UniProtKB/TrEMBL annotation:
Superkingdom to which the source organism belongs: Bacteria
GO molecular-function terms, A-Z: 2-octaprenyl-6-methoxyphenol hydroxylase activity; FAD binding
Keywords: FAD, Flavoprotein, Monooxygenase, Oxidoreductase
Matching InterPro entries: FAD-bd, FAD/NAD-bd_sf, UbiH/COQ6, UbiH/COQ6_monooxygenase
Protein name, UniProt field: Oxygenase
Amino acid sequence: MLIVGGGMAGAMLALLLRHHGSGPVTLVESHPLTLPDAPPLTPSFDARSTALSAGTLQVLDMLGLGQALREHAAAIHTVHVSRQSRLGITRMRAEEEGLSQLGAVVENRWLGYVLLQAVYADPAITVRAPARLTGIRRRVDGYEATLDDGDTLHTPLLIAADGANSQTREWLGISARRTDLGHDALIANLALDGDHQGIAYERFLNQGPLALLPLPGQRVALVWTGPRAQVDDWMQQDDDTLLTTLNECRPADAPMLTAMGQRQRYPLVLSHACAQAVPFAVVVGNAAHTLHPVAGQGFNLTVRDLTLLAEQVGGAQNPGDLTRLNAYVEAREADQALIGQASRWLPELFRVQQPLFAHTRQLGLVALDIFPGLRRGFARRAMGL
Ligand SMILES: Cc1cc2nc3c(=O)[nH]c(=O)nc-3n(C[C@H](O)[C@H](O)[C@H](O)COP(=O)(O)OP(=O)(O)OC[C@H]3O[C@@H](n4cnc5c(N)ncnc54)[C@H](O)[C@@H]3O)c2cc1C
């Protein structure tokens, strides 16, 4: 099988396919990979951090990678959701779910290191990096793909995992609906003056949501979203000025933020492929759906997709059979729609300023905190359990 894109989705799928008994897999990545000497630096495995749900951690454990991952990850014991200058806080706690942790936060480069080390360790996975496809051609039993070094590969299943602007998806004739939110996410690692105690803070501000995710040591990963002009302003401010603003916005019981690492920004463009399967080809990860990072669900949703896809095609005689691929797409539809809509509407809902909305929102947060059953349903869905 041939996977185009060696980012989070592509690397994870290669491992899952092998776990489910697939034959040889080729992974084509356009960026150079520095393994095995150092963590990779690619558009997927970059300066960001990713909140992995308990469900994703279970999948990594199944692949035998949980231990290596946890060496450089911080456990999430509590998720704390609040709205600036309003009452109403809800806390979701691991013990309420009977779990030792709700999830974990890992820096993307370490996640890449763990995934790609395992990819390189499997002799049945061939990595071609840096390499690009220059074209694909439909055959009676699959696809023929040409690489930029002139090599031709034949595959019974072509998997497009080459990100939101997937060239492979385009070549397959699949369009994508794109919505530019006009907002960007600013990310940076921050130092604290105390222990974060494994609390992930999600705070809804007037401009957009702010997340502080626990990292190993006294550090958190910041994901702060706002209108593009506002993010321009944040990017230009010096560290002390921005830290003062952040400390004013942070939840009162969170530790003080004392220092800031390098800042990066990401445009928030949501996209959704109009189809995810055609004969002998399937579209996954950001190439299939790109979400608002508000609740840290993009990769977790993808892992649930990939786990089912690998189960269904891993050991199959004819993995590119459209009936099989359509059954996979249908089975994943409801989860993708629910998580996609929730991550789209959550920031909108919290941005609305009308008093009635503000009151309802407040009630919603208070209700979630008072009724453990309601909160549990919410938490279990977000954790992918
Ligand atoms: C600010 C931010 C924070 C986030 N936080 C979280 C979080 O906490 N939890 C969570 O679950 N999700 C989170 N996400 C979402 C998560 O990052 C995505 O789900 C994930 O990156 C999807 O991975 P991917 O491999 O599909 O795509 P990408 O990460 O875009 O990777 C695509 C890969 O394909 C390669 N490529 C591109 N074109 C070609 C080509 N032509 N040939 C070969 N290779 C190619 C690229 O180099 C890259 O390596 C966040 C996203 C953002 C923007």
